[in-house]
Amino acid sequence: YAEQFETNGVYAKYGENVTLRESGKILEYIQDPKQKKIDSAFFSKRDKDHMVDVRALIQGTYTLKYVLAVVFVLFLLAFYFLLRDRFFFLVRVVFVFAGGLLVGIPLVSYVLYQLIPSLFSDVFLVFHKTFFTNDLWILDPAKDNLINFFPEPFFYAFLVRILLYGVVLGVVFILSPLFLQRLWVLVRSLK
């Protein structure tokens, strides 16, 4: 966050102390489901109302992450017990396919963003229209400090970071079947 606050001029506009204190309140609100409201006069009512929706969306992504992890483990177990003789082949296929997606999607996104500079803004707009059922996400920089703290370039940099992590994870997924197979051969040879 600090790098983006510097890059986007947030520190210059509000000072580092105010920026860190108030952004900390936003993060605390998002991370603590027991916290009922953002305790700050710095953010407008519209900012706070929008953050209710943002927190619900983020909590939904956490739930989705756990559900997908459980489904993934269940599929691996099903592959193992139902198709034991082809288990490692199927695991390799799944890991290489998933890794290919994790590497391919960021690369295609990068190329598209280079070819169509407005693409991120267009996708960002569609994202908000799709996932928010009201217009609270339409903030006015003159009245709503939230948009000044977290402008569109902040989210673009956030997306780039996620995509880079995706590439690294994708490479790990692609290479992991090789290591798992060697480990399996080693374990079996010890029996």
Give a verbal description of the structure.
The model has no long low-confidence stretch (mean pLDDT 91). The radius of gyration is 22 Å and the shape is elongated. It has 8 helices and no strands. With 191 residues, it is mainly alpha-helical. Helix 5 (87-115) runs antiparallel to helix 8 (152-189). The protein is 79% helix and 0% strand.
Characterize this entry briefly.
Helix content is 79%, strand content 0%. The protein contains 8 helices and no strands. 10% of the residues are buried.
Order of helices and strands: HHHHHHHH
SS element count, helices: 8
Query: Low-confidence segments, ≥5 residues, pLDDT <50?
Result: none
Strand content: under 5%
Chain-averaged pLDDT: 91
Q: Main beta sheet, described?
A: none
Task: Give me the secondary-structure category.
Answer: mainly alpha
N- and C-termini, Cα separation: 51 Å
**What Rg is obtained from the alpha carbons, in whole angstroms?**
22 Å
Helix content: over 70%
User: Tell me, what's the shape?
Assistant: elongated
Number of separate strands:
0
Characteristic key phrases:
191 residues, elongated
Furnish the topology, listing elements before pairings.
Elements: H1 2-7, H2 10-14, H3 16-31, H4 45-82, H5 87-115, H6 119-131, H7 145-149, H8 152-189
Helix pairs in contact: 3-4, 4-5, 5-8
